[in-house]
Design brief:
This protein is mainly α. The chain has one domain. It contains three helices and no strands. Helix 1 (2-11) crosses helix 3 (58-77).
Amino acid sequence: MKRFENLLYKHTWFTEGPSRGAGPGSFGEGLAKRFGIDACVYELNSEWIAGLKKIPSGEDWELLGKQLREVFFQYFEGTKP
C-alpha cells in the first residue's frame, strides 16, 4: 500500500497521507487478513482540498478522476499476481 500511496502523491493532488486510525475490524484490515489483498478506503472532503488549497469544484473532481486513472494503471502494472 505504500507504493499506492506514493503514486497518489506523484500523480494527484493527494497530500494528506493515510489515516493510521483503522485497525483490526476495519474493512481494509479484514480484506488483507481474510483474502491477502491490499485494500483502502479513499475518503474525499467536499469542503476543502488541502493539496489545491481551495474549496473543490466539479473540475477538480474530474481532474482527480483522470489522475487516479494513471495511479491505478501504474499500481496494477507493477503488482504481481
